[in-house]
Amino acid sequence: MEQPASVTLDPLQRLDGNGRCVQIRNWIGFWLLGLCNNFAYVVMLSAAHDILEKQETRNETASTSASLHVDFQVGNSSNSSIYDCNPVSTAAVLLADILPTLFIKVFAPFVIHKMPYGVRVLFCAIMAATSFLLVSFSSAVWMSILGVIFASISSGLGELSFLSLTVFFSRSVLEGWGSGTGAAGLIGAFLYSGLIQAGLSPRITLLIMLVVPIIMFISYFFLLVCPPSLPQWRTKETEYAALVSEDRQQLLDSSDDEEPESSTTEDQPTGPLSFRERLSVIRGLWRFVLPLGVVYLTEYFINQGLMELLFFHNIFLTHAAQYRWYQTLYQLGVLLSRSSLRWLKIRKVWILSVLQMLNAVFLLLAVRYLFLPTVWLVFTFILYEGLLGGAAYVNTFHFISKETEDRHREFSMAAASVGDSLGITVAGLISLPVHTYFCSL
């Protein structure tokens, strides 16, 4: 017997008779949200370096880098290291960038349900715009650093919020989100360096970038087709009460001869998860979070501890140009693998963590013993590194979404986002002494 439409149709299809069109709109919407969420963070870091360089007049020999993560190049004419080191490791900047995000991801999942999604998106867009304005008009170092912090807050809160948001849509939007975040690094680096190369000042370039928070606003409020269950402007407590009432009414409207699939509204608890439930869910997430954290720890150890030391003398690229190409190829690998979920799914993410650890050990030995004969081999390993990192990210959240109970899924997606930030933080702490050791040789 054909079932009533209210029972069989997906919420997206109830909103729009053309379910395929809605899915495409939502996929594009999440792609743009992923792009905008990471774009401000990526571009603003390079701009902060340019402006700090002007503010600190003692660093007159500093060279500008348009790379993804800022390379503070302080004048050091007496540098006798074979690695052509900068006195300050890029890991120091990385720690300043990631610590606010880590703080948000650790604590926000326990209280963020009290803030509706519409308010969160507005807050993230305002934080991103503020970071652009602060860095572009900064007259002191502390203003630029504050801009970095605001960008980190926007990116961290945005990531856990948009990952949680995906549970209200078809699972395919995770592909769009992953691909968009991967594109942010590549597009951001090229666009910023291109505008600077065209002769625009960092300040004007940053003011142009204010269009990015506007695109985030439009993508969420005008492009996405949100299901009725989404708590866009109401608190979670109010929304859960409405959902219970809606579910009960749906049961009353269903045909009498049909046995309901489950009586979740009667047999299972409703309302927001308790603190004890949230801790229980977190314990179950470690099988996903730990491999993801290891991948990002080794990945950013390469990026911030080793990459600037993989320098080849007397070739067609300068040291700064080699570093920029390393970062560009890394971002290309991330983009490709974060966009691959439709064609390739990897359940055993721990395999990727093992491969990334082997990659880090190999490159560490390459830095120490200088046995790599050509920069092209390094290019290959950096591209491979990005492929592993991007694949670990999208597959982790895909299988969390697929294997977690419905009641826990939204919280799980937010809580698991701490894995990459925790790994990046540990990588920054490890990279500082490693950088110091090699530069002392």
From TrEMBL:
Residues 252-272 are annotated as: Disordered. It comes from the Eukaryota. Keywords: Lysosome, Membrane, Transmembrane, Transmembrane helix, Transport. GO terms for biological process: axonogenesis; lysosome organization; negative regulation of neuron apoptotic process; regulation of intracellular pH. CDD domains: MFS (cd06174). It is found in: Endomembrane system; Lysosome membrane. It is a multi-pass membrane protein. It holds the Pfam family CLN3. Belongs to the battenin family. This is Battenin. It comes from Oreochromis niloticus. The gene is CLN3.
